[in-house]
Design a protein that fits this description.
Helices cover 65% and strands 10% of the residues. It contains twelve helices and eight strands.
Amino acid sequence: MGIWYSRIKNAALAVLRVPERVRGDFLRESVRKNDLSLLVICGIIFVVECYNIARVLFWSRSGLGTLNNRIYFGAYCLLLAIAGLWVLARQMLRRASLEARQRMQYTVILLILAWHVALNAYDLHQDPGENIGVLTTAVLGISIFIQFSPGYALINFGVGYILFQLLAAPLLPAGQVLNLTITFLVALAVSLTNAHHASTSLLQRQQIVQINSKLQGLVGKDPLTGLLNKISVEYQVEKHLCRGASPFGLTFFVIDLDDFKSVNDQYGHPCGDHVLIEAAARLKSVFPEATGLGRIGGDEFAAVLDRALDQAEALAFGTQINCALGDIRWQNQPVAVRCSVGACACAGSDVTYHDLYVQADQALYLAKQKGKGRCCYFRITAKKSRTVAV
């Protein structure tokens, strides 16, 4: 019994409340949908009630000469006033909080439902055989067109049903009372189901956004090291250059591990992966403020700084990188890891990623030629003339 009670309780809570994670989204969605639904409902009210008022004033033999006609005329005018006040209030509440707009919407809906109950009760007082189809349509229509939160659904249809029991039920046979009771219950069930469905859809939408965000992150990153991949590094550089060329310029480093194949041959590929992961971690410590830091090849990395370094600063970074890589260990044994670095700085606005990469790669090639384990530096001026420093 305890298990069944727990399951029923959880199912009831799932239907009777909106999850905290999507409560704000549910509120925005409800206000947006209900605003449109109420505009449609008010438009129908304007057409129908204007017709009813004209019918009383011009097409009835007695006009407003009888009490009955005056009551109907007043009722039609009252519903017109409710619709008109909503249209005015809607304009005034455009800058109000979502909660205030929601409360106003639900108040108008409750007034419309109460109006239908009261008018149907008056019809029954006048003619006990009067059709109650209009009230049934109004109750079911509200449940379909209006998105209630579970609490407001209970209040709305609960108040409507109490009014029906007080005003109309004593005038109806037991069968019709039962039918309308079922109508109110069905309307409540439809509203609760719609609220639950909307909440579930919002939760799924959030999950899809989160999954897409994770996938986007995976697409932009190297899966082994967690650094940016080649495309993302290029994007970061181009984005920086397209800002209108920062007055501080840009420096692009290409870092290639020397003799990395020998590490794989001597220790195996698991060691090689370990070295790449450790190299990435050490590059993060050397370039904590990098605009972009990524793995752009098998054992090749790139770093982007949002300022144009001079020769001494670039060479100092090259020394720091080699010092950081020098203490990488595998199974408590030191692994001789060092790198060659090519650096290219620019301060001009007419530079592309391709320009930077080609010059940094040439500087890297020069560093390899000069014995590896060192940094070479190129600089691109605004006129794309180059100076080389080793």
